[in-house]
Amino acid sequence: MLSTFIIALREGLEAALIVGILVAYIVRTDRRHLLKALWGGVSVAIAASLALGGILSFTSAELSTRGEELFAGLTSFIAVALVTWMVFWMKRTARTLRDELHGKVDSAVMTGPISLALVAFFAVLREGLETALFIYTNFKTVGAASSATIGLILGLALAVALGYLIYNRSVKLNLSKFFTVTGVALIIVAAGVLSYGVHEFQELGWLPGADAYLWDVTPWIAKESILGSVLGGTIGFDTTTSIVQFIAWSIYLAAVLVPYLSKKGAPAPRVPASV
C-alpha cells in the first residue's frame, strides 16, 4: 500500500503541476477558449494510461507460467529504467519546465486547438504511461492487490488535491524537498522492482543462483503476510533473497542514489504552477 501510494502521489502530482502550468498560462494570456482542447488532450492521455494498465494485466493473466515470468521480468526492467530516467529528468529540467511548456503552448496556438490538445496529451501521457507500468510491476512485487489498490487511489486523490490547491495558491509546498524525498523513495521502490525482475529471470534459468539464498526468513515472515508485502513493496525485501538479487539491489541503489543526491542539477521550483 505504501509503495503504490508513493508512486501515485509523486507521479500524479507531477502530472497535476504540468496541467496546472498549462491551464494557468492559458488563463493568464486570455485564451480560455483553448481550455476545452487542453482538457480533451488530458482526458485522452489518462484513458491511454488506464488502457496500458489493463493491457499489462490482461496479457500477464493470459500467458503460461514461463511466459508470465518472462513478461514480468522484462516489464520490471523497463519500469526501473523509465523511473530512473524520469527522476533525473525532473531534477535536471525542473527550473526550465514552466518556460518550456509556455513555449509549447505559444507554438501550438499558432497551428490550432488540436496542436494544443497534443501538447497536453503528450505532457500527461509521459507521466501516465510510466505510472501504469511502474504500478503494474509494483503490484507484482507486493502481491497484495487490495491494499496496493487502496494506496494507488489515495495517492492519486492526494496528488490531484495538492495540485489544485497549489494552482489556487491555497497551499505552499516546498516542491524541491518534496520531489527530492519522493525521488529517493521511488528509487528505493525501483530497486525492489529490479530485485523482483532478477528473481523472475532466475526462475527462467537465465540468471544463475536461484537457490543460493543470502537469507531465508520464511519461518518467521510469511511471503504473503502483511509485513512481508509491505517490506517487499517498499524496499524490495524478499523473504527468500538470493545473493544475485541482493547484489543487483545494492549496486542499483549505490549507482543511482549517489548521483541523484549530489548537488549537481537543478532542484524543482517551489511553486511552478504560479505563473
TrEMBL record:
Annotated keywords: Membrane, Transmembrane, Transmembrane helix
InterPro entries with a match to the protein in the record: FTR1/Fip1/EfeU
Membrane topology: Multi-pass membrane protein
Compartmental location: Membrane
Keyword Zinc-finger tagged: no
GO cellular component, one term: high-affinity iron permease complex
Pfam families: FTR1
Single GO molecular function: ferrous iron transmembrane transporter activity
Transmembrane segments: 6-26, 38-58, 70-88, 108-125, 145-166, 178-198, 243-261
Main location: membrane
Similarity comment: family membership: Belongs to the oxidase-dependent Fe transporter (OFeT) (TC 9.A.10.1) family.
Name of the protein in question: Unannotated protein
